[in-house]
Amino acid sequence: MKNFLTFMFLSPEIATDDYVGFTFFVGCMAMMAASAFFFFSMSSFDKKWKTSILVSGLITFIAAVHYWYMRDYWYDYGNSPTFFRYVDWILTVPLMCVEFYLILKVAGAKKSLMWRLIFLSVIMLVTGYFGEAVYRDQAWLWGLVSGIAYFVIVYDIWLGRAKKLAQEAGGAVLSAHKTLCWFVLVGWAIYPIGYMAGTPGWYDGIFGGLAMDVVYNIGDAINKIGFGLVVYNLAVTASSKENVLT
Asked: pTM of this prediction?
């Protein structure tokens, strides 16, 4: 038990100019706090919204655990923990896609929508990993394939079936859907910047000076916590209206 507490609460010294280590630590703490908030708030909602809040908590909790390991990896080896990062993403990004399905169920969303978004997100991540960690000399090509999968997701939620379902639901669901769409369009766009900052290609002169891990860490914290807060706000708003009607 003593060793476990030492592992959990004693941290290696962080240099004042180690912005990568700092963002790993802050990201871990922020997402752990968000997880606690989402999990403890579940009892405030009925069954219809509990699953959405649970998924939000799982997203930030999984990320927090991985960030703890990634932070230690960075301190021990001074290298980007690419493998751990993609393991985190392969678990959390599909869950973020599940959130679209869960909030659109009230408008009749089918599981085929959920599985399509999950499949596209896996393609996006697997090809991204190949370009960043396996076939770095062809990073631009794998990044292109990853980007195509990303833009198909953007199309589906902004202009495709998901948008039509959100419009049919209207009200708070439509508002939440639009906000999540902006997170995907703008927030997820941070990741290609990090990808290009950490891989060789024609874009070296544009993004070569950026710290890849800092970009990824900031993007993760904003997107994962932000996604959860949007879903939480939807649950609060919808539950309040349901209480008024009853």
From this structure: 0.89
pLDDT of residue 5 exceeding 80, the answer is no
Q: Compute the distance between CA of residue 84 and CA of residue 213 in angstroms, rounded to an integer.
A: 12
Calculate Rg over the CA atoms of the chain. Answer: 19
Structure tokens at 121: 């997100």
Burial annotation 201-239 (CB, 10 A radius, 16+ → b, else e): bebeeebeeeebbbbbbebbbbbbbbbbebbbebbeebb
CA distance 172 to 176: 6
* Dihedral sign for Cα atoms in the order 184, 190, 195, 196: positive
DSSP H helical segments within 105-211, as ranges?
111-129, 139-158, 161-169, 171-182, 190-198, 204-207
Spatial distance between the Cα atoms of 59 and 37, rounded to a whole number of angstroms: 12
Q: Cα dihedral sign for 182, 63, 165, 169?
A: negative
Residue 224 neighbours by CB under 8 Å, 6+ apart:
31, 34, 59, 60, 63, 92, 96
Amino acid at 117: L
- Rounded CA separation 212/150 (Å): 19
Band of pLDDT at residue 38, cut at 50, 70 and 90: very high
Question: In the 3-class helix/strand/coil scheme, how is 130-155 assigned residue by residue?
Answer: HHHHHCHHHHHHHHHHHHHHHHHHHH
